[in-house]
Amino acid sequence: MEKHLQEYARWQAQQLPEELAAELAAIRGDESEIYDRFCRTMHFGTSGLRGRMGVGTNRINAIMLGKATRAISRYLTARYEAPAMVIGYDTRHNSREYAVGIAKVFAQCGVSSCLFAEPTPVPVVSFAVRHLRLNGGSDLVLRECELDTIVRRAVRRFAGEFIGRKLKLCYEPLNASCVTDEKWLLFVVEQVLSNALKYTRTGSITIELEAPKTLVIRDTGIGVAPEDLPRIFEKGYTGYNGRGDQKASGLGLYLCRTICKRLGHTITASSVPDHGTAIRITLEQRQVRE
Questions:
Q1: Which pairs from 9-18 meet CB under 8 Å and 24+ separation?
Q2: Which of 100, 135, 124, 139 is nearest to 190 (CA)?
Q3: pLDDT tens across 95-127, in order?
Q4: Helix residue spans in 145-251 (DSSP H)
Q5: How many CA atoms lie within 13 A of 87 on its CB side?
């Protein structure tokens, strides 16, 4: 019997999740479809497993992801005393379900994992790995960066939201530069803008520069309660307004503060309830923390 048919028969004999079992039954007798799905085993490359979703060894599915996860677990447990992983996911089909499944397999294999509670961009996952010391080395690239380049990239990301919600953006060229890591400062600016948009229903968001070199992002949103303000940069703290948002994790501003410390910058907040919040990022170079 040819190899792809052997694999097909092996999968038929397994107890599969309901949706995979139904898909496997649907291709019975279809030689070309069986061959395409079982002619090879997906390879784990530099970008991980990439391919179409579906049943078979040549598809993305819970079985193949579990197999890859167990292989990674064997590698980690053979080399580290207490291996740990960070798991993020995006908004594509089944991304969260696959992430939860992978975390469960890691747990079964003795590997602890930190699973984000919401779709997470790659820089956040990367920073979490660094911050939790799950791997070594420094990924800072410090150089002279134009602030307008960073700010415009952040604004472009949220342009659709500004337009769709009819919020005014007040921004004039800053015409300034600073020594920083462009990728990480961009993450901070995007996170602050995301928060400003989240808590601003009407009005405007202003981006400006205060002397000597402080980037200010100011909104006309609901503001922060005085009792919450001293704690908004703490890990996991959401405050009164954040508790009303089921997606609030209390990690965004905490990561911003941690990144700013590494870059030698500082980040502070001032706010008046029902009038708005201002986040200030002081960009004068202090001691860079590795």
A1: 11/38, 11/55, 11/56, 11/57, 11/63, 14/63, 16/55, 16/63, 17/62
A2: 124
A3: 999 999 999 999 999 888 888 888 888 888 887
A4: 147-157, 159-164, 182-198, 239-243
A5: 21
CA 183 to chain centre: 14
Which single residue is written with the structure tokens 């500004």?
Answer: 162
Beta bridge partner(s), residue 278: 218, 270
| Cβ atoms of residues 16 and 55 within 8 Å | yes
Helix/strand number for the chain, H first, E second: 11, 9
pTM, to two decimals: 0.55
d(CA 135, CA 161): 36
Provide the residue type at 130 as one letter: R
Q: Coil, strand, or helix at residue 169?
A: strand
72 SS3 class = helix
Residue 159: both structure tokens together: 């342009």
Residue 210 phi, psi (nearest 5): -105, 150
